[in-house]
Design a protein that fits this description.
The chain has a domain of 83 residues: AhpD-like (Up-down Bundle). α5 packs antiparallel against α6 and α5 packs across α7. The N and C termini lie far apart (46 Å). By secondary structure, it is mostly helical.
Length: 158
């Protein structure tokens, strides 16, 4: 119940802020203005952006810029290596190509890319096995915490 209330409050605040910004003179960008910003940033407007409907284009571009191009607590190279792993698991060749090339742009080596894919394969495999075997979740979490505590104690002795 607390989670639902929190989500409702956040939704109301976001909606209020959005409508206030429109009232205070903020206006939506036209398709051509969005295209100019994309071209300024990427050197061209990739064709996939041309498929996005007018009502969503500005929002999708801003989200893309924020998540893919701006700094975040996770450095670019590592975010892209995460993307490489996710792409491998979801089997999206577009995403796989995108994240691999951008990871290289940000300095990822072939060994790091291979390791990200191998890690994703291992994680997805264990996920399939644990879920398929219906391993008791509470027991799994208890055992993991016990193992983590053991490793911490072992490391503190070194």
């Amino acid at each position: 119940m607390k989670t639902i209330l929190t989500i409702l409050i956040i939704s109301i605040l976001i909606g209020t802020n959005f409508s206030q910004s429109k009232e205070m003179g903020g206006k939506e960008m036209t398709r051509q203005e969005v295209y100019r910003d994309i071209e300024k940033t990427l050197g061209k407007v990739p064709s996939f952006f041309k498929l996005v409907p007018d009502r969503s284009l500005e929002l999708e571009w801003k989200l893309f810029k924020t998540l893919q191009l701006e700094d975040s607590p996770i450095p670019h190279k590592y975010r892209e290596l995460i993307g490489v792993g996710i792409s491998a698991v979801t089997k999206c060749r577009y995403c796989s190509f995108f994240h691999t090339e951008v990871a290289k742009l940000f300095g990822a080596s072939d060994a790091e890319i291979e390791d990200a894919v191998h890690y994703a394969k291992s994680s997805a495999g264990w996920s399939a096995y644990l879920n398929g075997m219906q391993v008791d979740y509470d027991q799994f979490t208890r055992e993991l915490i016990e193992s983590i505590d053991y490793v911490k104690k072992s490391q503190s002795k070194k």
